[in-house]
Each structure stands twice: as C-alpha cells, then as structure tokens.
Amino acid sequence: MTSELTLVVPTYNEAGNVEAFTAKAAKALEGIDWELVFVDDDSPDGTAKRIRQIAEANPRVRCLLRVGRRGLSSACIEGIMSTGSPFVAVMDADLQHDEGLLPAMLDILRQNEVDIVIASRYMEGGGVGDWDAGRALISKLATGLANMVVRTRLSDPMSGFFMVRRDAFEGSVRHMSGTGFKIQLDLIASSPEPLRIRELPFNFRTRHAGISKLDSHVALDFFQLLLEKTMGRVLPIRFLMFVSVGGLGVVVHLMALGVALNVLGAPFGLSQATAVLIAMTFNFTLNNSFTYRDRRLHGMKFITGLLSFYLACGIGGIINYSLAVFAFDQGFSWWLAGIMGAAVGAVWNFATTSILTWRK
Ligand code: GDD
Ligand code: MN
Questions:
Q1: Residue 297: how many CA atoms within 13 Å on its side-chain side?
Q2: pLDDT band at 42 (very low <50, low <70, confident <90, very high)
C-alpha cells in the first residue's frame, strides 16, 4: 500500500549515518504513514549493505542502488519517481537537516494551499550553525544569484531540504536539468506553472559522520544550472559555454601576440601565428575540461582531439574571413560584417567540433 509520505535520501559514503538517520526519522514521524528510500550510488564504504540490513528489520525502508552513476539531483529524481506517495520529502543523510520539521511540513501540504514547503536556513529562527565566514558568504552570494532564476524571492532557494506534492514534481520533472547538486532550485526553476511555495525556518546542524561531497565541480554545476535556466531557454547551454570560452580565447590571443611582438621582438606574422596556436590550444583545453566535461578526452585521445579541433577551427577561420569580406563588399558596415563572420564561424566551430572532436 502506498504511504502518504516518502522520504527520499541520496547517499554517497554515508555508512556511518544511515542508522542514526532512520532512527531519528522514525521517531519524528510517529503517527504518520511514511516510507524511506535511500538512493545510493554504489558507495565504496558499503552504505547500501547497511541500508539493506536496516530494511530487513524495517519494512518502511528500502534501498535504490544505482551502479555506474553519480549525482545528488538525479538520485533524488529517481527516488521520487520510485514512489506513488502524494507527498515526498528530500533530505540529506548526514543529520544536517532537522527531521523534527517534517510533521509541520506535511501539515502545510495537506491543506492543499501550497505545492512545496522549503526548510530555510536564512529565515528568522533558522541558522547555519558553525560555518566559517567564507562558506557563509559564498552561500549568500549563491542565494542572490539563484533568486534570479526562481522568479520569486526566497530566503533559501538552495537549502536542499524540502517537501513537495508529487503531482507538482511530476509537472516539473520533464523540464529539469537533473545535473549537479541543486535539485530544489532546479525543481522550482523548471516548473511550467509557478509553484506555490512556503518556507519554514530550521537550523542547519553539523554533519554527523563522514565528509561533505561538495567540491569545486559543485560551483560549476551551479553556474551551468543558472545559465541553463536563464539563457538556456533560448540557446543551448553548451553553445553558450563554447562561446564564453571563445571570448576568453580572444584575450589569451591578444596577450600572446603582445608578448611575442613586444617582449620577445618576433616579427608580426610569426607572432600572430603563434598566438593563434596558443589561443586554439587554450580553447581546446578549456572546452575539454568544462564544456565537454562529461566527454572529456584523455591521453592519446587528447592529442588527436586537439588536432581535429585545430582543423575544424582552421576551416571556421576561413569561413569567418570569407563571409566577413563578402558582406563588407556588399556594403555592410565594417562592424556588422565582422560580427556576421564571427557568428557564423562560431556556429561552424561549435557544430563541427561537437561531431568531430567530442563525439558522443
Ligand atoms: N546518491 C548520491 N550521489 N548521493 C549524493 C551524491 C551523489 O553523487 N553526492 C552527495 N550525495 C548525498 C550525500 O551522501 C548526502 O546525504 C547529501 O547528498 C548531501 O551531500 P553533502 O555532501 O552532505 O552536502 P552538503 O552538506 O555539503 O550540502 C548540503 O547543503 C547545501 C546547502 O548548503 C546539501 O543539502 C545541498 O543540497 C545544499 O544545497
Ligand atoms: Mn551535508
């Protein structure tokens, strides 16, 4: 029988936390019809085995084990889709999210006036505990940026602790990006109809056992999500990243040209040729690490990829040049002709390298 509330808890190396989490959740949810799905990405520390031991004794608990996959957001999405409960809560396994808030969240959803209840660290009555000033500042900045994409002002769009009506979630899920950490932001920003939201304060506790999985990629994931949810409605995110890298490449090109010409005293032709090579290599490396992070080339493939990138962009350069000269001859102003050449060259470079260099 489907229970009224399902808790979805993503885990990666949380073997030291799942028991305590289950015990605390069970205590907080007395009198409520609930179940608990841990979504584990094959943690090397044996988290899934621990969960299955708990599940042997407690039929409310189960483990959704994913193999060869990683990602907090996609884990939560699959966990939510695995249940038919009308209400679903997403929480961390490390006891940082206060399970004592669950009954109040559920009561609010039952009244049918809102679609999602968010537990907020930044409301009157909430808090972030013992964070250092650096992390607190970063979190504040990220909150400001995130509010740009949720189309409403929230005190904490990224707390990662929320309870949602499953039908509201299902309205959003086909539009979600599903990458990275920011499931809550993704969910709110992706809903075709604005979600009705309520926030409740809570105190973010210190992690019980184990370590945080937030690393440098998380920041990148976040900016990617922001881009996708703002400009991505018009242009594909990869293209935007490719063009941004290209913009940086122009700066690198000018710097290399200046150094070769003025510091090393090389002739202009040689300096320009060197700068072109340096800028293309720079662009390739950056695109390989960021734009195509999921298809990143290593070792020998890195070298052949670089060569194919030179080739594609070399042809792109010729197209850029020819089109601009043609447009200029046709009477377009110099800057419009320049932009037309550059735009068509960029599309060419993007299209051909996505097929030639970073083939799926
Ligand atoms: N299945 C799965 N796969 N679970 C993961 C993965 C993954 O790749 N990465 C992290 N998790 C799980 C962790 O095991 C934990 O239960 C939960 O996701 C949150 O990860 P933490 O590593 O504890 O993140 P945090 O505490 O630094 O970040 C939390 O606070 C942020 C706000 O500051 C999270 O709740 C974020 O969502 C939140 O934005
Ligand atoms: Mn945590």
A1: 23
A2: very high
Nearest CA to ligand 1 atom 19: 92
Exposure string of 101-127, with b = 16+ CB inside 10 Å and e = fewer, is bbeebbebbeeeebbbbbbbbbbeebe
233-247 per-position pLDDT tens digit: 677 888 989 999 999
pTM of the model: 0.76
Per the CB < 8 A criterion, the answer to whether 68 and 42 are in contact is yes
Q: How far apart are CA 284 and CA 178, in angstroms?
A: 26
Compute, in angstroms, the gap from residue 38 CA to the centroid of ligand 2.
15
For residue 260, the 8-state DSSP code is: I
Q: Nearest CA to 154 among 202, 105, 121?
A: 121
> Which residues make beta-bridge pairs with 65?
40
Beta bridge partners of 5: 34, 87
Closest ligand to 119 CA?
1
Cα separation, 37 vs 51, whole angstroms: 10
For the CA of 135, the nearest ligand = 1
157-180 residue pLDDT tens: 988 999 999 999 999 999 998 887
* 217 alpha carbon – ligand 1 mean position (Å): 13
Distance set, CA 256 to CA 249, 303, 307 (Å) = 10, 22, 20
Q: In what order do the strands lie in the sheet with 5-11?
A: 61-65, 34-40, 5-11, 87-90, 162-165, 116-120, 197-201
Whole-number Å distance, alpha carbon 357 to ligand 1 midpoint, is 33
List Cβ neighbours of 174 (8 Å cut-off, separation of 6 or more): none
The answer for 31, left when phi > 0, alpha when psi is -120 to 50, beta otherwise, is: left
